[in-house]
Give the backbone structure.
Amino acid sequence: MPIPEEVTGDEIDKDVRQELQSLPKTLAEDVARNLVMVAQLLDEDPEAAYGYSRVALRLASRVAAVREAAGFAAYANQKYGEALAEFRAARRMTGSVELWPVMADCERGLGRPEKALDMAGAPEVHKLDKAGQVEMRLVAAGARRDMGQLDAAIVTLQSPELASNSVQPWTARLRYAYADALLAAGREREAREWFAKAVESDRDGSTDASDRLAELDGVEFMDALDEDEDGPGAGNDAEGSSAEDADKA
């Protein structure tokens, strides 16, 4: 797969660069450049990121960072079985528990929420840092919801991290998940309160909490392009669209 000339491979994390030192120099550079492409494209074009991850995997399957990158690329493409296999391989190589929450979420993706809950109660969770423990809590709550246990999901999310007024990297997502669970349980007033709190803490726009809050407040967003087209002579088109929407409903 083509890689832009400006991508040198030097952009990768120093720890990953150190892992690649076990490879011949030219090979290490090729792998590094592919890993950079995975990182750059993972959010905006996960399919392309997956392609670059497969190239890196073919070149250096015995490097833990490569297996991890391949796992995240597969995960972003909802290839949960493949992602889980790669994460397990990376974990065997490093002995780290860092990937435990995303491995549990892969179990959810594979339709095995009970397995995800088993992992949430495993000793490995106690070895996670605070961010990892919060992530594990989010996965466990999701598993509860998968099983139709809304009240249990709400209780799972109730924690000192949720109650804290300090804003951490995980705060917005935790508050959002709690608000969403409350709404699913029909507790709309409380859900609105927590969506508002999620908005306050969502400094990088990692959630759509503001949109969800607006929906609860009855705010309707109108596409500016549609508004421009609603001029003279546009009535037939609008009527046709409404009929099409009614058919879909």
